[in-house]
């Protein structure tokens, strides 16, 4: 009786989750006011950012309420905001919390399906099944947070890979007589990648009337890379005080290339040690067996 009631409860929760997913997908596919206005305001900073935390129509949905509860329980909104900025995402913290709720529902559904499968196979354990379902929901929420950190680190690696080329091109443009902002516009028009996207967003903020030095200072404060922060601060100082910029950019590009070279050498050294594991524990024992086994067989035959 208890197993049947628990199965009915899990089925009800799974059906509710499917209904919520369908409702959310329909809300996402419906064009919002922001999506209709953004094409005419593409020069504004953060034009792709949603007008509210989740949007007026989704504020009172169960997903939004669950997202608010997760935000109050887990906290760390400033950390999430920094990682979203490092990812180059236009989503708000509330949008990310809604995504965490969706991941948690998926984890709960998978764990509940596994529990039902075990109970159908004859394993009658209600409490472990409930704990497994709750653990699946918690694992989904934490996996979404972990995925955000991975995306932020991957994007930072791409930025560090692109930085020397961008800095060299900008230094060449400045040395040719262009101003820092004009040189930056020329480089951004001919570049693609994560760093170029950040600089393109920075130029959009400057076009909307924000002071150039303040825009670069704000970019230096929100980036998670010290090298890029120094790059933005150097441009801000050069614009405000008229200091030479080409030599500074060349030096920064050379420093980044040197750091990348050292990291490559260290990675090669670690890979060399890791390559010794199959040699020592697999190839060497097989070689020893092939070398000594015929001798052992000969000794056995001679003694017999």
From TrEMBL:
It comes from the Bacteria. Gene3D superfamilies: Type II secretion system (T2SS), domain F. It is found in: Cell membrane. InterPro entries: T2SS_GspF_dom (IPR018076), T2SS_GspF_sf (IPR042094). This is Type II secretion system F family protein. It comes from Nocardioides fonticola. It is a multi-pass membrane protein. Keywords: Cell membrane, Membrane, Transmembrane, Transmembrane helix. Residues 167-290 form the Type II secretion system protein GspF domain. Pfam families: T2SSF. The chain crosses the membrane at residues 125-148, 273-293. Signal peptide: none annotated.
């Amino acid at each position: 009786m208890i197993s049947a009631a628990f199965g009915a409860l899990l089925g009800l929760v799974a059906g509710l989750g499917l209904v919520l997913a369908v409702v959310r997908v329909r809300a996402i596919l419906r064009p919002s006011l922001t999506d209709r206005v953004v094409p005419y305001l593409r020069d504004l900073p953060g034009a792709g950012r949603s007008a509210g935390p989740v949007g007026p129509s989704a504020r009172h949905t169960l997903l939004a309420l669950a997202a608010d509860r997760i935000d109050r329980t887990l906290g760390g909104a400033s950390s999430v905001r920094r990682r979203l900025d490092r990812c180059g995402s236009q989503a708000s913290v509330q949008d990310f919390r809604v995504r965490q709720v969706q991941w948690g529902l998926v984890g709960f559904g998978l764990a509940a399906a596994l529990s039902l499968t075990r109970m159908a196979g004859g394993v009658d354990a209600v409490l472990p099944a409930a704990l497994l379902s709750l653990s699946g929901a918690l694992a989904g929420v934490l996996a979404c947070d972990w995925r955000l950190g991975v995306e932020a680190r991957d994007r930072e690696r791409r930025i560090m890979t692109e930085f020397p080329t961008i800095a060299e091109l900008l230094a060449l443009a400045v040395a040719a007589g262009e101003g820092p902002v004009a040189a930056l516009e020329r480089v951004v028009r001919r570049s693609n990648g994560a760093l170029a996207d950040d600089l393109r967003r920075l130029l959009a903020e400057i076009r909307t009337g924000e002071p150039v030095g303040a825009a670069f200072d704000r970019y230096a404060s929100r980036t998670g890379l010290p090298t890029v922060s120094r790059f933005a601060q150097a441009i801000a100082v050069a614009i405000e005080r008229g200091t030479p910029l080409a030599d500074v950019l060349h030096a920064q590009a050379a420093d980044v290339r040197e750091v990348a070279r050292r990291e490559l050498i260290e990675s090669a050294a670690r890979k060399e040690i890791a390559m010794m594991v199959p040699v020592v524990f697999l190839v060497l024992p097989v070689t020893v067996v092939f070398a000594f086994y015929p001798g052992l067989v000969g000794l056995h035959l001679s003694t017999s």
